[in-house]
Amino acid sequence: MNYNLYPRHDVLCIDMRSFYASVECMKRGLNPQTALLAVVGDPNRRGSIVLAASPALKKKHGISNVSRYFELPEDSNLVIAPAHMGDYLTVSLEITKLMMHFVPKEAIHVYSVDELWLTVDGLNHLYGSVYTIAEKVQSSIREQFGIDSVIGIGDNKFLAKVVMDLHAKQAPNGISECRYEHVSDKLWPIDIEHIWGIGSKMKRHLNRMGIVTMGDLARFSHDHLKKRFGIMGEQLYWHAWGIDLSPVTGQFTKTEQKGYGHGITLLRDYTEDEIQACLLDLCDEACRRARRDEKMGRTIHLSIRYTDDDAQHFSRSQSIDVPINDTMEMYHVCMQLFERFHTEGAHIRKASVTLTNLTDDVGTQLSLFDDRSHMNQLNQAVDSIRERFGSTAILRASSYTSGGIALDRGQKIGGHYE
Asked: Which parts pass through the membrane (predicted)?
């Protein structure tokens, strides 16, 4: 591979170690590296998931981020912390602001609440080598927030990410580097299941083709991969050679909205009667966001999954002649789809609605029998109240029934209580 044909950048991929747990430790004046602390989604539910565990808890008791609350050990030093998503988002935002001391915002790509990329091209004359820059970034986060981080360094975002996942987390100082010339040594011996972007389904397909490691993938026919998997196969091939042409700057550019959706995994089984209030709340939120952006949609999607895998899950859509962003109009279409495709008697565990096929909200088409202008005024009044006083300041009566979800979700961020 002639790497001289491909761009080289100085990209850092930064991951905050045990981020949620570290924030909770700092709030309590505990050392994130020595404290035994678990962040639990909802301590009132024994089956609630452990969202994060401190490094010491992971090492001593083998607790991971897929453990359940009831699996936590009986340890007198163990601290149980309810999740506070608002705090984590606030700290994440402050860390991003700290990164702007090193680079402009266009050189920052936030990947998740605890992970981001920095492009530090041309900063050598200010801070020294890219490795030194990584150490300075790491030190700044630790000094200001008390949170340890690991950093991968690469010629592009893919290399920085995978070397961070595979090597930096095991490195004594939490920093590892992978350039094009290091790909055969640092990437090719690794099993494909450990590579970012390759899920279990893709792994099974590749294994059946005799591809087990990244080296196998790199030596496989490019044309065969592209024919079998399309653009995804082509991307897999180039990633195996460490090549990633995705932009490393300008990530703050807003992308075009394709649709407005809302979904939920229910905490218990819902009946046919209860799901009606749930769907109304979901439509309310999807349409509120559409109205906020002055958009309307012609196609409504409904997806339902049941508790029993033998039941016929479904995802169906229906297009209408006149674009809408009114909650009740979207809800009526969803109920038509539900009544048509629902498996009678089956208990519901997941539901989602989406408004797509968007157009600008440039006016309202009136009919002889429905005065939509009055409904638009009502929607605007309700949206204004919620914008000013919070999402639960005014709710439909159905939201207070056993099937309503708006009241509980209004108290949460990212599915967890603030």
From this structure: none
Catalytic annotation present for 181: no
The DSSP result for 183-199, as a single string, is HHHHTTTSBGGGSTT--
Coil, strand or helix at 80: strand
Q: Among candidates 242, 334, 211, which has minimal Cα distance to 280? A: 334
For domain 19-84, which CATH number applies: 3.40.1170.60, 3.40.1190.20, 3.30.1360.120, 3.60.130.10? 3.40.1170.60
CATH node for 3-17+87-182: 3.30.70.270
- Strand-pair partners of 305: 350
Q: What is the pTM of this model?
A: 0.70
Residue 260 has pLDDT above 90, yes or no: yes
Of residues 74, 94, 115, 181, which has the active-site annotation?
115
| C-alpha span between 418 and 407 (Å, rounded) | 14
| Contact (Cβ atoms closer than 8 angstroms) between residue 6 and residue 116 | no
Tens-digit pLDDT profile for residues 271-282 = 888 999 999 999
Distance CA 212, CA 215 (A): 8
